[in-house]
Amino acid sequence: MARKEKSRWGGIVIGPVVMLAAMAALWCNETRYDYYKAAAKTTEVAVPDDAKPGANFSLTGSMDAGLTYPGKYVDSFTGYLTVARSAEIYCWDHDKDDDHDRWSMKWKSSVESNSRNSGVHQQCSSTSLHPPEYRVGELPVDSQLIEFVDGYDPIRPNALTLSPAGTALRLQPQGEYFYLSKNRSGNLGDERVRYTGIPVPALATYFGKSASGRGVADQSHQRTGFINQIIQDSGNLHYIVAGDRPTALASMKSHIQRLKWIVRGIGTAAVVIGMMILCSTFVGFLFHIPVIGSIAETGTFLISLLIGLPLALLTIASGYLASHPFILAAIAIGIVAIIYWIRQRGQASQQILKQDLDQQYGHQLGYEEMKDLEFLELAQLAFSDAKLDAGEAKVLSQWARKQGWDKAKCDAMIKRAKENRATEAAAESNDDHLQNLIRLAMADGSLSNYEIRTIRKVSKQIGYDDQTIREMIDRVRRGIATPTPA
Questions:
Q1: More confident call, 155 vs 338
Q2: Under a CB-based contact definition with an 8 Å cutoff, are residues 166 and 178 in contact?
Q3: Domain boundaries, the chain
Q4: What's the CA gap between 263 and 254, in Å, rounded?
């Protein structure tokens, strides 16, 4: 029971942490340093001496296909810009939840600390290998902080020669791996090493900063921190890319677009998963109940999707706009323009309606008089069946209080409306009263939500439905309705 409680509290913490970390990654991804745009802005030079010291530049030149440098477990690598060494160990993986423990044997990058891996130690390590210096044409390029966008190819062990260190470990080539057997039961503790590398191109383009006739990293936009490391955003401009400048730029553009979409996909999934962890913590006790358990599990996924997906998309959109201020400014200007256009149109409609009303009633109407007339039309609609029920009286009383009227004025106006409704001279139809009510309500330039609700309440009680009311409002707005003579 204690372990279940601990696991539940762990879910409450882990879920939000996963969500926040994923949202931070999505934001950083959208605001990441765009090395493609930075490379496109560099000055192209033909020889290293043409590069201005301290300025960013690009240079295209041939490369040495025989580029060679040593490895730890093999003697050397020839013909690769960089080599990635991936080391894994076969060991126990322990997964636990509220119900039971799950044990499985897996290839892992490091030994998981658990009881079944006791005494298991990893001897091989993962790393990246590269020479101390590159040369693009006549340009020497520092290998420190160098980055690439071209793809890695597998390097088969049969093409490599083991170094004394690799021989001492008794590494054996098999397929794409060097294997290290520990001769334990179930192959526990066995290790394998895989090499991949970027082949040296015949022609390459370097993008970076000039310093003392060399190519070095431009670190003026350097990014640090765990999140930036995870999404591979160093903020440095220091690249060797296969091909001439146009080809290299196309590769860099494709690479950063692909990288962004990968992070967007994984980050969005992580936000949803984090929400699922959090939701599952609260409904976990329902999972053991037949039928309800499966419903709760399905509901958890749907809730996580409905909340997590919009959160992720909102984060992506916000980060994108933050990194594209001109687009943000254009959207803001567009919104302001639309609001201004709506306001101007409302003012124009108000002026036309006001002129029609002044003509209809034979003099210029003031604000207070228009509100009196609006109330009279509303009350005359309520008296359409010759009586005023409790619900209608309540609506009229609320409307009067909204205008700051006292009970005496409200009663007097209701009495006046009843008398007007009873006279043959003012025996207009309900359509006429409803149309005139809407025109009076819109004469101040807008139809408030409260006015719409009040009109709907009274109109529905005398038989109008929402569609008819909407059509009437639209007709008045478009100036189709015909004024009723005073």
A1: 155
A2: yes
A3: 338-477
A4: 14
